[in-house]
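Shift notes (night). Ran Nucleotidyltransferase domain-containing protein while the centrifuge was going.
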Amino acid sequence: MEKTIINCIKNKIKGDPELMSELYSLILYGSAVRGDFIEGVSDIDFFAVLKGNDEILSSLRRILEDCTKNTGAVEVDLAWEFLENLDDPLNKGVPFKFLTVYQEDFLKNHVVIYGEDITEILPKYKFEELIKWRVTRLLKLSDVNRGNLKMLHITAGEVARLLALLNGAKTLKKEDILEVLQKIKDEDALSIYTSYLNKRNMSFDEEFLRSFIATRCNKILKRLELKTQQSQLQC
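Came back to this:
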């Protein structure tokens, strides 16, 4: 799948002079590269780095959707950023999770389709250093997305994934996350994650989702605070 998609996209970009001029880099990342893509469940993820003109995005999206229409992806997820913001993703532009808290996975599992690799531009982050930042952001997203069940499901799913990573999951692969959630016996987290894997059959209501996000995020924050206090006592 990956090779066919890449060749299709490359050929179409080369036929568009404006795209060639303004597109610094186009990257395929996530499950399609990691090896845990599931038809009818997974999105197909792209990251575009632009030199300055964001008007090319509509043309680029049409190309991506055309070249991936037979993959079984739920949707094409096209994230983008200006080149000038890549040296500080946390404070410039959009702090995408794949460039920050999950950066290690992005660096290991990405393919440059067009243009330059961006790995040398990005500052290097460690997962442990950004957990508090990400959890706080997830709590804010829960408030911002009141009434938006789709986004609340996505946010709750990420909270479940974070719980797995904090409890020993070594990668973002779906089977690794699922295995750890089964081990820690958090039934709500497991239900949310398995529902996502089951063709995104998510039927939870807003009250349940927001309660799950709040309780688990606050639990993580308390765990981090306790760890900090213990470290200070040892100094």
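Strands lie at 23-29, 44-50, 76-82, 110-115. The mean pLDDT is 93.
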